[in-house]
Amino acid sequence: MRFAPEQAARLRPGVRWLAQLNVEVAPYRGTILPLSLVVIPWAVWVGGPGWAWPAFLAVGLAGAALLVIDGRTHRLPNAITLPGIVLVFALLGAAALGCGDARPLQGALFGGVGLGAMYGLLHAASPQGLGAGDVKLAVLLGLPAGWLGWEALWLTALLPFLIGGLAALVLVVTHRATRHTAIAFGPYMLLGWALALTLVKGATP
């Protein structure tokens, strides 16, 4: 059942969140679903073996929805990013307990806070360039990147700007955009994060 935003606001918090999530995802379900089917085996591979793969799967599924929604609407809904941050940190905490090692969780916490702070500074410097939604997405992506280690984290910080800059240059050169055209950055953040984790995992013996 699909709820309108004004209907969702009158529901209990848990039900309200589910209703709002449905409002955000439903119009793009036909694109999100096949993308999620590709993301599932990738996330399990990147996060495994071990206890952490559910957290990577959660970020991957949230990322599939956010990539499509931001690409279409230039929005990164709080109904996905904020619960995603809480869920992923909880899952990584459970993974740390399961493997008996708190160091990856400390790395995840540093990754989420550090990447979020970096994007927060960029947002403060140029609110038109990076939105508040990008800052929240940075926290979400920084958690699993930090769990994997420094290499995954710095690549997650660097690659979105390289990919986004190259894509923007191609759009300008092909006259499909100008220097003043608004371009959603969330998809490039997600693509850069996915590439970073793939490179790090692929290089792991």
What does this protein look like?
It is a single chain. The chain is an all-alpha fold and 205 residues long. The protein is globular and about 55 Å long. The model has no long low-confidence stretch (mean pLDDT 91). Helix content is 79%, strand content 0%. The protein has nine helices and no strands. Helix 4 runs antiparallel to helix 9 and helix 5 packs antiparallel against helix 6.
* Share of β-strand residues: under 5%
Helical fraction = over 70%
Q: What count of helical segments does DSSP give?
A: 9
* Sheet with most strands: none
Q: Report the average pLDDT across residues.
A: 91
Q: Separation of termini?
A: 47 Å
Report the principal-axis shape. globular
What is this entry, summarized?
By secondary structure, the chain is mostly helical. Helix content is 79%, strand content 0%.
Question: What layout of secondary structure does this protein have?
Answer:
Layout: H1 5-8, H2 13-25, H3 29-47, H4 53-73, H5 78-99, H6 103-125, H7 132-148, H8 150-173, H9 186-203
Helix pairs in contact: 3-4, 4-5, 4-9, 5-6, 5-7, 6-7, 7-8, 7-9, 8-9
Descriptors:
mainly alpha
